[in-house]
């Protein structure tokens, strides 16, 4: 957890919702109802704008929607091979783990989602659920990001990667899984994105009121396969509905 989610809004809608500007420059992916590790995803950041020489303006900040690759790659990594294993960072240890602590202090983001999928353990196959606000608003998943430089001939190309923070499940979420994304209420957005704030420790606890307001519904086993990607994956199904199991993301890999 969190290993799969839905991202359905275009950058313009996300920019309006998060009081940001669209800086995706046409590179944003389209609606994705089954976002899997290493895919490109929209994320919201707030930074000091830089002049032509690369110097930041300390008196000004700009919030923008950017495109990132899901699966954090630390700047010191030798290659991108470990990205799929670093899609999540535990909120309890993110400030201490060498792979995450620098990003947690200096490069935080919000990863917007229409909702996320979770699999409830049980006898036999696991039952997937979709968790979302129910009112059409986006879930603001707390994230961190990093820049990894890829050598492309004589040039170096920056690859922006991110991870979603997770925490112990609270409220009704505990009935589905023991972990959940760290979902930020709107009154924490500014503090979380603040580029000058280096200690986000008091922002790492989940908000019970926000979590209890989320809707949980069982969905089709079709979401198990990354080959399936359409709005019906988010539709409710009856528990016990007979379906042929499909391979999960981890079985495919």
Automatic annotation (TrEMBL):
InterPro entries assigned to the protein according to its UniProt record, in alphabetical order:
SRAP, SRAP-like
Superkingdom is Bacteria
Question: What protein family does this chain belong to?
Answer: Belongs to the SOS response-associated peptidase family.
Q: Which GO terms describe its molecular function?
A: hydrolase activity
Q: What class of enzyme is it?
A: hydrolase
Q: What is this protein called?
A: Abasic site processing protein
* Entry keywords, A to Z: Covalent protein-DNA linkage, DNA damage, DNA-binding, Hydrolase, Lyase, Protease
What Enzyme Commission number does this protein have?
A: 3.4.-.-
Q: Does the keyword tRNA processing apply?
A: no
**Record-linked Pfam families:** SRAP (PF02586)
